């Protein structure tokens, strides 16, 4: 840690103070970083990155050489410890800010919302900077909050010489402003898409809860909401009763691909399948585990046997059953063996010989 | 019933030999407890010499799967014969495991 810079004695004193307090600064940096990570995790906010750094000796010396007259002691500098939280969405910057406000004391006088400094016809650096402090620690620290795209723009702008002190050609400035404007639009569009998706999920959940299942297309969100109603429970319990078996709950999400593969379009179609094919599914289960002493089943047995009954009754045959197992277990010739086994059994099942 | 275990580079292969009925399940429960401790990696249950599986055997498989899921590991069931595959299918266990031929 040495410098050839010509510094005033009070700047040298600040550098000495920095050296003496460096271990403590590092400890606080780690504590603040940990506290931010834990809080964001607790509120379920996924961010692109959280970075932290302590200003290097050389960087501090450079700053003091340029602006040393502004600072009387190390405590006058607000960015000795710096942290940056980079969010995916523009809406999340304010959520992060709110979390930071709860965690630390904010020096509002020195904090700055650069998102608000632009005139209506200008575009550029957008970021929220809070100057923060914690009890029993004399130094303040800076937390910058911005989106991934704002971060990209800031880095590119910095990288191309913004801080070099050389006058920037107007054409370059104009191009960077155009890009800032475009990225601002893209950030807003990403947020809009997320908000629309959230609205869609809420609408689907409301429709599922109200029982208007004919109107709900089958997709990942709607199927997940539907499964919360435990639609296969009754059938599973009926099957379990055959051998007094215990039911192991497992995820039924793999059946999303199967129901769609079988041409079902709405949750209402699944309801109809349960209504029309539960008896067939039960007969399949009776024929299979009823002849064994197996007393454990998984909760996927209901949808599995329903789909088998549906395929058999609708003439899907061996190819249809193999297709179902291929969707569930991955494509394999052993699925054809299972299909053969089921085709053989199906000849004896009563539901195959009825009109309904 | 015999279990021969071999671990290399975070991949454990357990060769199951014989009939996994209720008494055999009790007999090898200690082997499965050892496998559960290794379930943060990949556990391959080599069933090429497994002749039969009962509900008790399925429970052992399931406990290993649960441990692997919670520890971020993986269980692969390898080379099951058609009878055992039918048992997996009839109980709804078929799509719970990665099954390799």
CATH class of chain B: Alpha Beta
Largest sheet of chain A: 6 strands, mixed
Helical content band of chain A:
55-70%
* The number of domains of chain B: 1
Oligomeric assembly: heterodimer
How large is the count of helical segments of chain A? 12
- Round the Cα radius of gyration of chain A to an integer and report it: 32 Å
Query: Residue share in helices of chain B?
Result: 40-55%
State the CATH topology of the largest domain in chain A. Answer: Beta Polymerase, domain 2
What spatial order of strands do you see in the largest sheet of chain B?
1-2-3-4-5
Largest interface: A-B, 28 and 19 residues
Number of domains of chain A: 2
Note the overall shape of chain A: elongated
CATH-scheme architecture of the largest domain in chain A: 2-Layer Sandwich
User: Can you summarize the main beta sheet of chain B?
Assistant: 5 strands, mixed
CATH superfamily of the largest domain in chain A: Beta Polymerase, domain 2
- Give me the CATH fold name of chain B: Transcription Regulator spoIIAA
How far the N terminus sits from the C terminus of chain B, by CA atoms, comes to 22 Å
Structural class of chain A: alpha/beta
